[in-house]
Amino acid sequence: MAGVTQGLSGFGSVLLSLPLLALLIDIKTVIPLVALFAMVLTIILLIQLWAFIDWRKVYPLLIGALGGIPVGVFFLKKMDKNLIQGLVGITLIIFSLYSLWYGTTFRTLRRQWGIVFGFLAGCLGGAITASGPPVIVYTSMQPWGKDAIKATLQGFFFLAGLVIVISHAISGITTVTVLRYFVVSVPFLIAGTYVGSFFYGMIEESVYKKILFILLAILGAFMIFKATPWYQFLLKG
Fold first, then answer.
1. What pLDDT is recorded for position 109?
2. Which helix (H) or strand (E) holds 99?
3. What pTM was computed for the model?
4. Which of 94, 101, 103, 160 has a Cα-to-Cα distance from 73 of 20 to 30 A?
5. Torsion-angle region of residue 34: left (phi > 0), alpha (psi -120 to 50) or beta?
């Protein structure tokens, strides 16, 4: 399911797999496992979209993210994590519904805006390990084709994910149990990715934008749900 989602839209594997797996497997195992899932997905999609990747579009996002991560960690210590998650979820739903209903004005945003959105991505990554939403919003507002949007997302996710996976390995979070789950799951992950990519190739540009906004709204709803006591109750149960 995670592979199909990301193969179709370019994001969403973590959104789908992390909260659901956390209900079945210990969260300390799920977090590094999902990070490995994300790396496999981005590598496959990067290979598929290599002709459309423009690293000049990715670097401003990455530069901003590196500056935002320590800020996010600071806010994590000072603010309620669930409050941050809930506010971000509400913002995503409002933006998505507005874009679906009224549409968005597509014009090329300057690279400085890439740094700003990357900074917000870093803040969210450091605070609630959810760096994706600001980058998705930024790319969805650009007048790029669907291949350029999807390739830019994969470039950012690959570089950011590489840092995360290496950090998990060095710190010992990636255990033998995590690797065992990964080896069992990866064939299905790859199969799902190719299924999603197949349907992606059949989608028109305008329809792809609508799919982005719908999945963003779902992502916002998931973030709100994760901020509620019910999700914590399910984890403990």
1. 72
2. helix 81-102
3. 0.78
4. 94
5. alpha
56 by Cβ neighbours in 10 Å (0-12 / 13-18 / 19+) ranks as exposed
Q: How many domains does the chain have?
A: 1
Q: How far apart are CA 226 and CA 27, in angstroms?
A: 13
The token pair at 147 is 């291949």
User: Whole domain around residue 64: which residue ranges?
Assistant: 2-236
Residue 186: Cβ within 10 Å count: 14
Query: Are 185 and 62 spatial neighbours (Cβ–Cβ below 8 Å)?
Result: no
Contacts for 208 with CB less than 8 Å, ≥ 6 apart: 9, 146, 149, 200
Cα–Cα distance measured from residue 120 to residue 102, given in angstroms and rounded to the nearest whole number: 25
Q: Say which amino acid occupies 98.
A: Y
Chain centroid to CA 52: how far?
A: 19
- The string of pLDDT tens digits covering residues 51-63 is 999 999 999 999 9
